[in-house]
Amino acid sequence: MNALRDAEMKMIGVWGMGGVGKTTLMKQVAEQAKQKKLFTTEVYIDVSWTRDSEKLEQGIAKIQQQITDMLGLEFKRKDESTRALELKTRLKEMKTLIILNDIWEEVGLKEVGIPCKDDKTE
Q1: What range(s) does the NB-ARC domain occupy (predicted)?
Q2: Cα separation of 78 and 44, whole Å?
């Protein structure tokens, strides 16, 4: 919970073998963060479909759409890179907890539009 309170902390990773309680832990952390009002909004997305390489190709657009749906946002543009910039700009205006659960393959957070600590652009 201390890491979630740290303004400099942009990302926390939780990984391990299946069945050890990662999902349960993250749901509990998200609930505590919500109760303590550490974030203005929370987004929880199950991305277990990343284990299927065919679905992974459409994954960026899918994650972008799920985030905007959960936050009540709407894209002005249709292409992924422009949507990523729009999403990144909006997310930087908000204090949002984003949990991507059950990731099997690498998901390009920058390509999605999720701000990362090493982002060089403002």
Answers
A1: 5-120
A2: 23
End-to-end Cα separation, the chain, in angstroms:
27
Q: What share of the chain is helix, strand, coil (3-state, %, to 5)?
A: 45, 10, 45
How far apart are alpha carbons 7 and 46 in whole angstroms? 25
Q: How far apart are CA 39 and CA 113, in angstroms?
A: 18
Instruction: Give alpha helix (H) positions in 1-122.
Output: 2-5, 22-35, 53-56, 59-71, 80-93, 109-112
Q: How confident is the model at residue 56 (pLDDT cuts 50, 70, 90)?
A: low
Pair 71, 120: CB distance under 8 Å: no
Nearest to 101 by CA among 24, 20, 1: 24
Q: Note whether 116 and 62 are within 8 A (CB).
A: no
pTM summary value: 0.82
Distance CA 104, CA 88 (A): 23
112 token code pair: 């999605």
